[in-house]
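Appendix C reproduces, verbatim, an entry submitted by the partner laboratory led by Prof. M.T., so that reviewers can inspect both the input and the predicted structure.
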Amino acid sequence: MKKNSKLMKGVAVAAIAAMSMGMLAGCGGSKDASSDAAQDGKVYKVGVVQLVQHGALDQANQGMIDGLKDNGYEEGKNLQINQQNAQGDQSNLQGIAQQFLADEVDIILSISTPATQVMATATEDIPIVGTAITSFELAGLVESDEAPGTNVTGTHDMSPVAEQIDLLLQVVPDAKTVGTIYSSSEKNSQVQVGILKEVAAEKGLTVVERTISSVNDIQQAAQSLVGEVDAIWLPTDNTVASAMPQVVGVTDENGIVTVCGEESMVYAGGTITYGINFYQIGYDAGVMAAKILNGESVPAEMPIQGPTDLNLVINPDAVKTLGLEIPADLMEQATLTTDEAK
């Protein structure tokens, strides 16, 4: 786990007044969320659903669990956690949602846009805290980011697309054409690519798109961009992120820079990113979940939160393979994937 991720573990929520609800009767005085959670005697059922396994979502998952733990809710003490991974299958998500309903979980933690959409369709009553979601509003999960108005809240993972394209132009200054690969079924990816087109138009760049329906399409999509593009920009697309080796197998061989939407994709072989830390947004979502469990707030009244910092990450191995000249100031600022494990 990265050093900046570990620093997040010192975060704590502010002290709250003792609740007068029946389950807390007899616990007088003012104490923090951790104290309330430890003393109310209840074991809370938490359903955790992740769309697919890859670095970014794995980090968000761990962040959520740590955010809960640091605020008084820990498995084996007052939490019973049901961890589920849909392996990228929509029908699996449906089954997981029904399992959570049958188990009468107290809260659902959902990781990714598709997972959260399925959970929200399945229940309007159980609180849902989502993360790794590009736009809660455009995904139809909330009425607005400021006032969700539903049983869903959480943290978004909107990439700083404009800054990433600026980074691309620093690394490939003569670039005229930018390729992108994304899943046609992922709303979050469509949103990001829409922003890419706007940014590219402002900078006089041409965008060449390739859409995929599964990981089986990725290698062919990447290969089809060879000779057509000067560099590739990849959104925080779950399907693409889960198959970075296939992308990199093509781009490295053909000398194509990949600017990624987030850092785990660079650790998986991409070239460079200026992006968000998924552990952090997961941790922040875990803190929000703790506030819901201790009765401090409800999803409908909890504004959607975004990343609080961005990280420049460079893969020196990819840089060497591609024969790139990275500006010295970028190298000085960056975290390198070859650094000691974070």
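The two ends are 5 Å apart (CA to CA). Additional entries are available on request from the coordinating office.
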